[in-house]
Design goal:
Shape: globular
Distance between the termini: 72 Å
CATH class of the largest domain: Mainly Beta
Oligomer: single chain
Number of strands: 30
Radius of gyration: 24 Å
Structural class: mainly beta
Strand content: 35-45%
Largest sheet: 5 strands, mixed
CATH architecture of the largest domain: Sandwich
Number of domains: 3
């Protein structure tokens, strides 16, 4: 009898160890696969050419960034079109990342409650439009896939339950508000930046949260109009006092202000917008030609309300913008000064309409005969913002500089977001403990 009990106990121990090993193996394989995706291509990427008009935003507000509060009822809307039509089996999952979007080395079920993937069941075939497509949409997070930890999350959408068949990836921010955060945008004192840049001051109140080594544990990210390509990353505080951490050094807390975005009204393909000069249609497609753009003049600033690089899919023809709106090939031209190509870098169309230059179609080609840059984008009906920028290597890093084609003015209205990340001593991932968003023109005071 004693031997029988010992045998059962050994069997139970063996099974538990086997389960632990399988869980560890799953975690390692999942992390390796996601690390390959993130390290090779990075977030906010489209892998399939038939996927268009990807939008992810707070429920009901297409002009917002995908931010949700931990353990809240906040929802996001995900929309995208498949130009191949038909019905496909799209799934999504999420991956926890650090502040720099490298993969967090944690077990999937340590930061998500529910299943490892969820199918997208809400879809509808287009109607009325000349372009045939299938529109997919889903609300996130689903009750079967709830984040349990704050931080950066990479949303991955893929085919047939196979993460190797990626369609696209998008960023999501999950915040657990634990720090009081003050944020201010001012005009710089430095004469070099006085007319062209914005300066930032950040203040953290830590009375109710124990941060022993701010230089190692706290990291700030400052985003301009939700762009990550030019985000500021700050790790060194200016002042540390009891219960208070301040960041206000002008040497690294400034950013070129840019100018207001150019606009493009594509709400209707019958009643053309003010910046469309020509239309060429066939029985199968629309083609629109945008008015030729020119470089902006320095020190000349005009304020008008823009979408800060975003776009909204909508129509004025009383059509549903998700599955009744049509697509058009939109031709852009930009004439540089004296019709001479820029000597360094590539000119790109910058904004959400081109995934901030990530889409290869956003790279413009110089037509030496006409002395202009040209590019064509396939766009859905809506209202779009865009700018031009020069993409080039600076100190071994790929950068987007809009100063030459667009110029800078400190009066420019921008939307700034400061993110505060914290890592516990010995922790395996960064936590997002505070977010503050302000408008540079209408909210300049600490709160």
């Amino acid at each position: 009898m004693f031997a029988y009990k010992c045998t059962n106990q050994l069997l139970i121990i063996f099974v538990l160890q086997l389960i632990h090993m399988l869980k560890s193996l799953f975690t390692i394989l999942f992390a390796i696969n996601t690390f390959f995706v993130c390290s090779q291509t990075g977030p906010d990427k489209t892998y399939l050419p038939n996927i268009k008009t990807i939008r992810l935003y707070k429920y009901g507000d297409p002009l917002t960034y995908p931010i949700i509060r931990l353990n809240s009822s906040d929802l996001l809307e995900l929309h995208f079109d498949d130009l191949e039509g038909g019905v496909k089996n799209y799934y999504y999952t999420v991956q926890l990342c650090n502040a720099d979007w490298t993969v967090a080395q944690m077990n999937y079920f340590d930061y998500v409650k529910g299943f490892s993937q969820v199918r997208i069941n809400n879809y509808k075939a287009s109607s009325i439009s000349l372009t045939r497509y299938t529109h997919y949409q889903v609300n996130i997070p689903d009750r079967n896939c709830q984040p349990t930890r704050s931080g950066n999350y990479l949303l991955k959408v893929f085919l047939d339950g196979d993460t190797n068949k990626l369609a696209f990836t998008k960023r999501i921010l999950v915040v657990d508000d634990k720090l009081n955060l003050g944020f201010q945008v001012t005009q710089p004192f430095n004469q070099q930046f006085f007319q062209t840049h914005h300066r930032f001051q950040v203040q953290l109140e830590t009375n109710n949260f124990d941060i022993r080594y701010p230089q190692q544990q706290v990291q700030l990210k400052i985003l301009q109009n939700y762009r990550w390509d030019n985000a500021l990353s700050i790790t060194q505080p200016t002042f540390i006092r009891q219960g208070l951490i301040q960041y206000n050094t002008e040497s690294n807390m400034v950013m070129p202000a840019g100018k207001e975005y150019r606009w493009l009204n594509l709400r209707s393909f019958r009643l053309l917008g003010d910046r469309i000069t020509k239309q060429q249609n066939t029985n199968a497609s629309f083609e629109l030609f945008v008015k030729e753009d020119l470089p902006r003049l320095p020190r000349q600033y005009f304020y008008y309300r823009d979408l800060n690089g975003f776009y909204v899919n909508e129509t004025i023809d009383n059509l549903n913008p998700f599955w009744n709106a049509d697509y058009a090939k939109v031709h852009f031209t930009f004439k540089p000064k004296d019709g001479i190509a820029y000597p360094q870098g590539e000119l790109i169309i910058l904004g959400m309409l081109s995934n901030y230059g990530e889409d290869k179609e956003a790279t413009m080609t110089f037509n030496a005969e006409k002395g202009v840059y040209e590019a064509t984008l396939l766009l859905k009906q809506g209202y779009y913002d865009y700018q031009y920028a020069i993409r080039q290597q600076v100190n071994g890093k790929l950068t987007l500089q809009s100063t030459i084609p667009e110029q800078d003015a400190w009066e420019t209205e921008n939307f700034y977001t400061v993110l505060v990340y914290y890592r516990e001593l010995g922790g395996r991932a960064d936590q997002l403990l505070a977010i503050r968003q302000i408008n540079s023109q209408f909210n300049r005071t600490l709160q």
